[in-house]
Amino acid sequence: MKTGLISLVLAGLVMAWPASAQETRTLRLGMQGTAGDPQFQGVTEAARIIKEKSGGRLALEIFPNSQLGTFTEMMEQVTLGELDFTLNPFGGMDAWVPPAVLASTAYVVGDFDHLQKIIASDWGQGIVEEMRTKHNWRMVDSWYFGTRHTTANKPIEKPTDFAGMKLRVPNSAPLLSWAKAMGASPTPVAFAEVYLALQTNQVDGQENPLPIIDAMKFTEVQSHVSLTGHLVQDQLILMSENTWNALEPADQKIVVEAFETGGAVNNKLVTDKEAGLVDAFRARGIIVVEPDKSAFRDAMKPVYADLDKQFGADTVQSLLGLR
């Protein structure tokens, strides 16, 4: 009787072993974006692939809407290994790696492909390496976030059209420098209050990516959208170096491939939405202006000269030359 009981116990242990061996490791991603936006759809696709390719050994849990804190708090959590992933722009790394500010300076980046060349350059990889070694942030991928344009109640075709304009810009040093270089008067307004500020003429114009201009209904109180394209932004997928080192090489490969595929989903959604909005604005009677950007770039030269003094002669020109 005892022998039979031992056999049953041993059999039970053998049957339980595969389930234990397949225990799922859950990775956590925190983001500012909301459920349903292109970045969320991209990371959702990445989560699907991670689960599928790992055979369920890995899972990715997503926390949108800043549920885990501000972007600065989430960056700190990734540094400490308390959070596995977060998103932040390459140019926005300047708070920790100062030269990165060049990538968020107006007209340095021509388009998303140009930004990828900048990141892949020796200069860009130096920033990526400093992020990893000094702050524990490993760059997994770079996703397209959008290009910033200007709205007003008049066309913006050349820098002199900005002269005297009260222009709402975020409290960001590169965007404040751009507004001043254009001859505008940068005016601080909380993002949630921009619509009312435009409606009451507290400010004359504002700048944002087209999807935000549409979502916030700024074209209800602005007659012109001028495609100034002054800033091209991405979102880096940042991973804790602690998490990376804890994964087997095969799982590291799965993670990278998953976020590359998720990035393709995000990039197509953003690109298609931007293209569709230009037509949608025109269909609503909004005047869409496509200015020649060369005069705007020329107006930025004094800003570029100051940056070269800070970060090395001809640094800006070397990045412009990567187009």
Description:
Residues 1-21 form the signal peptide. It is found in: Cell envelope. Keywords: Signal, Transport. One of its GO terms (biological process) is transmembrane transport. This protein is of the alpha/beta class. The chain has a single domain, classed as Bacterial extracellular solute-binding protein, family 7 (D-Maltodextrin-Binding Protein, domain 2, 3-Layer(aba) Sandwich), CATH 3.40.190.170. 48% of the residues lie in helices and 20% in strands. It has helices at 2-21, 38-53, 71-80, 112-120, 122-135, 173-182, 194-199, 210-215, 241-246, 249-283, 294-299, 301-311, 315-320, and strands at 25-30, 58-63, 85-88, 137-152, 166-168, 185-187, 205-209, 224-240, 287-289. Strands 1, 2, 3, 4, 5, 6, 7, 8 and 9 form a 9-stranded mixed β-sheet that branches. Strand 5 (166-168), helix 6 and strand 6 (185-187) form a beta-alpha-beta unit. The chain starts with a helix and ends with a helix.
Characterize this entry briefly.
48% of the residues lie in helices and 20% in strands.
The proportion of strand residues reads 15-25%
Instruction: Please state the second-level CATH architecture.
Output: 3-Layer(aba) Sandwich
Structural domain tally: 1
Shape, principal axes of CA atoms: globular
Terminal CA distance reads: 80 Å
User: How would you state the average pLDDT, rounded?
Assistant: 93
CATH fold group: D-Maltodextrin-Binding Protein, domain 2
